[in-house]
């Protein structure tokens, strides 16, 4: 019974390790596809919301319109050179549609109850940027949105923000071009972990599976003596 229990436990561990290894391989392939799509699509510029394809992610977009500064969103927990801050986002009206635009990073005040002085750019503007999916970090639970503007959020849940703003926001975010005159400090990157790291993690999981297989074989052989 002891040997059977050990064998079953070892098999369960091996299956888990192998699954983790293949999961890392799939993540690496996703990052490679993302990098290729980003390189290709970011070179393709669109000039209106109506002209965008069904999946507009990573395409470049230039729009003419106006910001609504009364509905500022501060994406929390954004570090720049070790200093805490926020990403500043405003809804932008163009082509009879609304887009959430990420202007970039701004430093947080010394006290949590304070909000930073936010930039405002009035009148019709021309902005350019890259279309990106909204940030999605791990949350233990989804916190309700604050009642007063500007609101601080941990993640960009576009549906909730759209309801809060009473605006039909597009289900993506326009990350403003760093060269745009109204852009703040840019800290956003489309690919955080490259495919090479996922391949390295996959190798580690597979090597652990091989090591455990060897140790299990040694123990079973030794237990027969």
UniProtKB/TrEMBL annotation:
Tree of life domain: Bacteria
Pfam families on file: SURF1
UniProt keyword list: Cell membrane, Membrane, Transmembrane, Transmembrane helix
Topological type in the membrane: Multi-pass membrane protein
Subcellular location: Cell membrane; Membrane
CDD domains: SURF1 (cd06662)
Family matches, as PANTHER family: SURFEIT LOCUS PROTEIN (PTHR23427), SURFEIT LOCUS PROTEIN 1 (PTHR23427:SF2)
Name of the protein in question: SURF1-like protein
UniProt organism field: Photobacterium alginatilyticum
């Amino acid at each position: 019974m002891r040997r059977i229990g050990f064998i079953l436990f070892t098999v369960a561990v091996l299956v888990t390790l192998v699954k983790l290894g293949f999961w890392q391989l799939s993540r690496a392939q996703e990052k490679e596809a993302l990098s290729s799509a980003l390189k290709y699509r970011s070179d393709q510029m669109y000039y209106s919301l109506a002209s965008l394809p069904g999946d507009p992610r990573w395409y470049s977009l230039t729009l003419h319109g106006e910001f609504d500064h009364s509905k500022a969103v501060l994406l929390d927990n954004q570090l720049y050179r070790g200093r805490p801050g926020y990403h500043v986002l405003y809804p932008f009206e163009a082509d009879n549609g609304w887009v959430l635009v990420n202007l970039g990073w701004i430093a947080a005040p010394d006290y949590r109850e304070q909000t930073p002085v936010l930039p405002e750019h009035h009148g019709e503007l021309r902005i350019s940027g890259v279309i990106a999916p909204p940030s999605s970090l791990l949350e233990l639970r989804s916190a309700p949105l604050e009642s007063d503007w500007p609101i601080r959020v941990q993640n960009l849940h576009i549906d909730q923000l759209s309801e809060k703003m009473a605006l039909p926001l597009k289900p993506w975010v326009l990350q403003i071009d760093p060269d745009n005159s109204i852009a703040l400090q840019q800290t956003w990157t489309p690919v955080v972990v490259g495919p090479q790291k996922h391949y390295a993690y996959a190798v580690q999981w597979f090597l652990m599976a091989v090591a455990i297989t060897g140790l299990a074989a040694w123990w079973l052989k030794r237990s027969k003596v």
